[in-house]
Automatic annotation (TrEMBL):
It comes from Nocardioides jiangxiensis. GO terms for molecular function: 4-(cytidine 5'-diphospho)-2-C-methyl-D-erythritol kinase activity. It holds the Pfam family GHMP_kinases_C. The active site is at residues 12, 142. This is 4-diphosphocytidyl-2-C-methyl-D-erythritol kinase. Its EC number is 2.7.1.148.
Amino acid sequence: MTDRVTVRAPAKINLHLGVGGPRDDGFHPLETVYTSVGLYDDVVATPATAWSLSLDAAAYVDADGVPLDDSNIVAAAARALADLHGRDVVAAVRIVKGIPVAGGLAGGSADAAAALVALDRLLDLQTSDDDLLRIAADLGSDVPFALHGGHALGTGRGEVVEPLPAGDAVLWWVVVPSTSGGLSTPAVYRHYDGLAPAASPVPAPATAVVEALAAGDVHALAEALHNDLQAPAVDLRPDLGELIALGEASGALRGLVSGSGPTVVFLCAGPDEARALAGVLQEDGRSALVANGPVAGAHVVHGI
Ligand SMILES: C[C@@](CO)(OP(=O)(O)O)[C@H](O)COP(=O)(O)OP(=O)(O)OC[C@H]1O[C@@H](n2ccc(N)nc2=O)[C@H](O)[C@@H]1O
Ligand SMILES: Nc1ncnc2c1ncn2[C@@H]1O[C@H](COP(=O)(O)OP(=O)(O)O)[C@@H](O)[C@H]1O
């Protein structure tokens, strides 16, 4: 048996997040364009006779926000593999977190995707890709994309993922995690329903973003960025609106709330512009990370 498997999975940003009115099951139909960005969590799995879960976190990550009991999505991923294969799935698992928690960057989903791959390889379960994607969708709407990475169109409740051509543009981002706590995804969706009670059941189409990506045109992409959850997130956290205005006045092509927030991301014209903007925001006392994408989805970095 391999003595250690490390799988790395990236954060996501929604370049387009069209949200329709709620379905009968409470979920919202989405038309979204996901992109992966080079901020990562690693999941390290080693053989053990009993299940254990531990955490290492970057300085800007709120480690207290990550439960280490059975409610962690990594434990749910292990249970899902155990159910599928009808056997125990036991390992010592360490999450090394570089993705801010409850930030709208799908860090938990990245961990779930990485854990599925790491446990599958460590225990030689030989799970098919179809089964991995199906289990991923059951674990959370964002988890299938974390397996894919790149750019992708998401429909259904976000779990139906279709890769989009990468185009040739590298997207340069400044990522600004919130220093005053996360936002709950269900709470932001509920607030969206309150602010837009007559929302069309059909989500806004992603055409403009898809075309800008295909053309590799970063300026057109900046204009096309769209997030229906931005208004409710900014209504709950008005400081996000001020941050977006500051970043846009300081050189960003566009600022955007990431998913359900409260992380704010700024699309920049290139690496120099991104580093300059991060410098301005850091001088203003904020944490600001420079990252680019698209990058690969969950992939083995040690212990193939
Ligand atoms: C908003 C988005 C945008 O990509 O990401 P985040 O900003 O949270 O990272 C996603 O829709 C979050 O996906 P994920 O975090 O996987 O959500 P899930 O675990 O499937 O669902 C959590 C809860 O969010 C709400 N939910 C989620 C997806 C969806 N299409 N409609 C919803 O209403 C429901 O209240 C659900 O109970
Ligand atoms: N491995 C995990 N990493 C982060 N959060 C987790 C994890 N497992 C469960 N959670 C719970 O999921 C919530 C949402 O986390 P996260 O995926 O980081 O945010 P978001 O859905 O905004 O992208 C957290 O507040 C935490 O309670």
